[in-house]
Amino acid sequence: MAHGAESRWWRARPEHRLSVLQTALEQACADAGGRMARYERAHRLYSDKCEVVIGRNLATPARLDLNLVRTLALTARSHLLEYAPPRGQVVTSGGDYELQKRAEGLFKFCRATVARGEVDETIRGKVALRSAVMGTGLLRVGNRHKQILVEPVAPWHVICHREEEEAEEIRTLYLTRSRDRGELQALFPAERRYLDRISGCSLVPWLDDRTQRDGLRVWTVEAWHRPSAPGAKDGRYVLAVEGKTMLDEAWQGSRIPVLPWHWNDAIAGVWGNGIADSVGELQRQIYTLMQRLQQAIDLTCNPRMLAPIASRPRPWPPTNEIGGVVWYNGNVAPMWDVARAVSPELAGQIERLWSKGFQMEGVSEMAAMAIKPAGVNSGEAIRAYADKTSGRMAPWSVGEQKLHQKLTEEIIEEGRRLAEEDPDFSVVAESGGQVERVAFVEVDLERDAYLVKAEPVSSLPESIPGRMAVLQEGAASGLYSPEQVAKLSRNPDLEAEQKLSEAPLEWTRSVLEEIAFGGGVYQPPEPLDDLEGSKTLLKKIYAKARISGVNPARLGLLRKWATALDALLPKPPPPPPPGPPAMQPGPLPPDLGAPPMGAEGAPL
Question: Is the overall model pTM greater than 0.85, yes or no?
Fold first, then answer.
């Protein structure tokens, strides 16, 4: 950051804030020149169809016939689609029943917000591609028309100061982008006429007439400065257009709501390194060799006719008839002309460079060709092979989990801001086939009462063949009955089957927790409940209620529930009637002595 002019716009007076903000933005743009050049090169190497202005230059896509950067990026993104997307889980530690219910409702609120905004498609679409190619993908969390909005932002539209980037602590960030003129007029109806007149070119230092061809969009700058300490008053957020500040308000958030996802973390700085940075030179060499190979093929591998100078071939000109004969005068014997071969070193070097790119990035070349090694046939073997070949991309997958964790935290913070403006702010959530409206004020928790952790929604494969493999393995181990296998073979919805199996005890648990820790509403057990499982669950909840100091009336309701459960449990069969007493052995008769013996020794 230059020291010749004041650039701390968050400390300026309101009437001077815009001019100081533009000075700071010019300094930050001058510092970001090297990063913009990298993004321009990456955009050209990916060969996207759209031309974009990055920094002061127009990034025109290169025409590449054998595109290593694009293939690696698309293969890496396809790896993500093999697994269910993670979710930010709201976790409490040792909380009571009310706290757990609120945490469950808060998770439902966040899940509904993600589903409504199609966030998974956004993250695994543009954000993932930009992360892989350019090194950093960015997600912006905000609100519009009293609804939480999650949208991707281009990394070349985000700027920070070099001092903070080198210190690896971003406290001030700028987001420059064009927005629809009508949308801004709907957000700021009092400024409709002013927004109709401006062009926005003078707001951002690198803009010129190339970005304002039709006047349908207006360039805006969003600037954040994080508070220097919890509770400090120097946090600020500004939304400005050309010549005017549209929003200028305090910012109390602990994080700037522009969330990064890096392909590879850099050893210095805050911006990641992408595929274009590491294999860009290989792509250049492949392109050069491809041109040479094509030139060599055009030069040497075209059909030719050999004719002596003194000859006069007939007919003339030659035709393209297969096996045709060309007559000529001369003493040279007739011959076939065979096309000269190109040196195999050119094609071999291209193949070596192509494979080297996959090795450098740790991406499976077989995955890019959608094939598997011979002998890997079972579902378990295929999953083990997929895990092994994607080991180098594990940090990128962990980065996606961290992104979802930060996203959940920001959704909660944004919901808290909207609920302060409108206590009735809510979202529509779907759970178990039922739709309900979740009001944020009813599920909000204190910031120190919960943690957010990102975990995969399901460890089951997403593809149909993978689920069928899991089903076959479960059937072989006795996990699924023949009836379940027959049903799931038509539609392998394993999550639905798992929820159905867990439903009886989940219902019993909700009833018992409502009695012990909720509103105290008593619902007796029914004959169709899981009676044996309910008996074990009742003992656990009763012990927990005693440890938690639940009042005796609630404990009495649990004992009443136990009595009703005992009445429904099948009675053990009565013991068999007693039989006749067993004969007890009596005393032996007295010894009568040995019988008299005869002369021959035989008894008489």
Answer: no
